[in-house]
Amino acid sequence: MSVSNILKQDALEYHSSGKPGKIEVKPTKSTATQRDLSLAYSPGVAEPCLEIAENVEKVYDYTAKGNLVGVISNGTAVLGLGNIGAEASKPVMEGKGVLFKIFADIDVFDLELNCTDPDSFVETVVRLEPTFGGINLEDIKSPECFEIEEKLKQRLKIPIMHDDQHGTAIISSAALINALELVKKDITKVKFVISGAGAAAISCIKLYLQLGAKIENFTIFDKDGLVSEARTDLNPYLKPLACVATKKSTLAEAMVGADVFLGLSVGNILSKEMIASMAAHPIVFAMANPTPEIAYDVAVSVREDIIMATGRSDYPNQVNNVLGFPFIFRGALDVRAREINEAMKLAAAKALAELAKKPVPDIVNLAYNEKNLSFGPEYIIPKPMDPRLITTVSMAVAKAAMDSGVAAAPIKNWEAYELQLAKRLGLDNQVMKFIMKRAKSNPKRIVFADAENLKVLKAVREVMDEGIAKPILLGRRANIEAIADEHHIDLTGAQIMDLRAPENADLLKKFGELYYEKRKRRGTTRWEADKEVRKSNYFASMMLETKMADGVISGLTKNYPDAIRPALQIIGKKPGVKKVAGMYLLLSDKGPLFFSDTTINFDPSVEDIVEITELTAKSVEQFNIKPRIALLSYSNFGSADGEDSVKMREATRILQEKFPNWLIEGEMQAHLAFDKELRQQNYPFAQLGNETANTLIFPNLSAANIAYNLLKEAANIEYIGPILLGLKKPVHVLQLGASVREIVNMVAIAVVEAGETVS
Ligand SMILES: NC(=O)C1=CN([C@@H]2O[C@H](COP(=O)(O)OP(=O)(O)OC[C@H]3O[C@@H](n4cnc5c(N)ncnc54)[C@H](OP(=O)(O)O)[C@@H]3O)[C@@H](O)[C@H]2O)C=CC1
Ligand SMILES: CC(=O)C(=O)O
Ligand SMILES: [Mg+2]
C-alpha cells in the first residue's frame, strides 16, 4: 500500500488509539508478590547497587543497560520534513524504537532534546552514558550533527552512531556495490550526481570514496545549488567535497550522462527528462523520506535500463537505514563494543551486499507478496523483514568489532551466538505476517454476511488497503452506505449486495431452489427454503457453495451453533470428517499457541478427540509451524483414572500409533506442556522430549473455552479465532465484540484457506 493511500486520519488514529504513542516500558521480572517487590526495589535492590559500586562493569549483569539504546534527536532534520522541533520528532523516534525492538530485540528510550547548540547537546548526552549500552543519534541537521558525533565519540566509551550518516552510508553502499555489479560499471569511473549535502549525503559520499569512487566524479547540489569551490558558504565538512566551478551548474545539466544519482534531500526535485538524460543503465537512489526525489513508478516508466531504489517499503529496492541500525547495534551491544568503527561499518555493508545474492527464503517472498525474489535490478539489497539479517549482519559486525580490538566481551561460541540471535526474533511475531502475506499473494472474494456494522466496514476498508481480499458486503445498501458516510469509510472496491433489491430477486429464487434440493429430505419445505435463504448467513453460504464467493465471514454473534448451522447444512464437512471443531491461536510470549476444541463439541469422545487433534494439527501445519501436541487433563501419564484422564490417555495412544512421526504426548497437566525440565526429570519417556508444546488439546469444551478466555483477558494475549476446522470451504463466525484487527485477521485466514480449497 502506498503512503498516499494511507489516510491522514488512519495515521493519526493509529498513533492515538489505546495508549497514545507506540511504546511502553514492561518489567522483565516477576513482580507478583511482596517478596518480588522487596527484591525488585528496597531492600533487595541495594545488593546489585553495591556490586556495581564496587565494579562498574557489573552494571551489565544487573541492569538493562546492555540491551538499551538511547535514540536521541533534537528534531532539526526529521526525515525530509526539516527542522520541526523536538516534540514533533517524537513519533519518528518512537518509530525507531519499534524497529529496534521488532528487528533486533533491542530496547529503546527515545529522548528528544530541546537543544540546538552542539556543545549543550554533547554535554547532555555525555551525562546519559551510565544509562545506555549504546546511543543512536537521529535526525540532527548538518553540519551540527558532525561536530556532535565527533565529540561524543571522543568522550563516550559506549558505541555511538549517527544513523542518518552512517546507517544510510552503509545501506546505500551495499546497494551501490550490487547495482554496479549488475550494470558492470567500475566504481572508480562512474559519474555521480548527488542531491543534498547534509548529514546523510556527506557520509555516503565519504564511504563511496573509501570504496574507490573518485571525488572528481561527483557533482553535488544543495538547496543553494552546485556545491563548488566558488561558494563561500560551505561548512568545513562540505568544503573538501566541493567541485571546481563547472558549466554544469544546474541539476538538469549535471544529470546529462550521469551514471548514478543519489538523492538525500527533498521530494520531487527530479524530472522525467533528467532521468532520460542519464547514461545507459543508470542507477537512481531517490532516498528522501517520505517522498523520494522522484517517484519509483515515474522513474521506471521513463526507461527500462534503470536500477531504481527509494527509501520506501512499498516499492522494490528499499534503501533505508532500517536495514542497518537494528543489526549493527545488536552486534555492537553483544560484544560490548566501545565504539562503532569503520571496520564494523564496512563489515555490515559487505554482509548486506552478499546476503542479497543468496537464494531468498520462502518466508521473505511471502512477506513481500513476491513469487521469486532473486538478485537482479529489482532486488539489489535484502528486504528488512528478512529473518537472516539479524544473524548475518549482527555477526559480521560483532566479528569486526572483535578483530578491530574494540570488543570488551568477545563472542566465544559463534554457533551458540547464532542460535541466540535467531531466537530473539522468535516465530511468534512472524505468524500473522506470514498469513497476511500469503493472503496478499492470492486475494479471494470474501462475503461478509453482516456488513451493516461499523467494525466490519472498517475491517473491509483495511482488508482492501492491504490487498488481502475482495469483499462482498451483504446488507441493506442504504444502511451500509450511511454507516460508511458517517465514519468517512471509502467503500470503493467492495461489492454491496442488498438482498431486498429487485436485481437480486432471481438469485434469491435460485438459492431457494438449491437449498430446497439440499434439505427437502430433512423436512424443509419449499416455502421454508425461500425464507431461509433470505437470511444473510444462509445467503452467504449459498454464495460460497455456488462459487460466487471463496469464503464467508459471518456476523458478530454470541450464538455460535446457530451461526454455523447454515454452513454445515449448505457447505458441509470435508470428506471423512465426522465432527467440526473450533481452534484459537494465541500469540503468546512463548510463541504461537493453538487451542482446540474451544468452540463446538461439549464433551468429545475418544474418537472425537482423535479427530479434533488431527484437524488441529493439519491447520497448525498450514501456518508453516510444526505442531507439538499435548493432550491435557488434570493428571499426568496415568496418575489418575477419572473419565477425562482416561479419555485423553486413550486418545494419545491411538494418535501415537496412527502418527508415529508426530510430536504428541499426553495425558498431562497444562504446566507440564511447557515445563520441559520438570517433564524430562519426572517423565523422561514423554515424546515431547526437550520441546515445549504449541498445540493444546483439551478434554472438553468448558476447559478449552475457559482456558483461552482466561489467557486473553487476564494475560492480555492477542488471539485469533475461532478458526473453524473441518468444513469443506472456509466459513468463520466472528465472536461478539471482535475488534477490527481480529476481523481482518480472520479474513486473512479465510483467504489462505480458500487458496488451498480444492473445489
Ligand atoms: N533512506 C534513508 O535511509 C535515509 C533517508 N534520509 C533522507 O535524506 C534527506 C536528508 O536527510 P539528512 O541528511 O539527515 O538532513 P540534512 O538536513 O542534514 O540535509 C538535508 C540536505 O538536503 C538539502 N536540500 C534541501 N532542499 C534541497 C533541494 N531543493 N535541492 C537540493 N538539496 C536540498 C539541504 O541543503 P542545505 O544544506 O542547503 O539546507 C541539505 O544539504 C531526508 O529526506 C531524509 O529523510 C536520511 C537518512 C536516511
Ligand atoms: C530513514 C531515516 O532515518 C530518515 O529518513 O531520516
Ligand atoms: Mg533519520
From TrEMBL:
Does the entry feature the keyword Transmembrane helix, yes or no? Answer: no
Which residues of the sequence carry a binding annotation for NADP(+)? 78-85
Q: Where does a divalent metal cation bind?
A: 138-139, 164, 289
SMART domains, A to Z: malic, Malic_M
Record-annotated Malic enzyme N-terminal domain positions: 20-153
What GO terms describe the biological role, i.e. biological process, of this protein? Answer: malate metabolic process
Task: Kindly indicate where the leader peptide sits in this chain.
Answer: none
* Alphabetically ordered keywords of this record: Metal-binding, Multifunctional enzyme, NADP, Oxidoreductase
Q: Per its UniProt entry, which superkingdom is the organism in?
A: Bacteria
Citing just one GO molecular function, the answer is: metal ion binding
Which InterPro entries does the entry link to?
Aminoacid_DH-like_N_sf, Malate_Decarboxylase, Malic_N_dom, Malic_N_dom_sf, Malic_NAD-bd, Malic_NAD-bd_bact_type, ME_PTA, NAD(P)-bd_dom_sf
- Stated family: In the N-terminal section; belongs to the malic enzymes family. In the C-terminal section; belongs to the phosphate acetyltransferase and butyryltransferase family.
Give the protein's recorded name: NADP-dependent malic enzyme
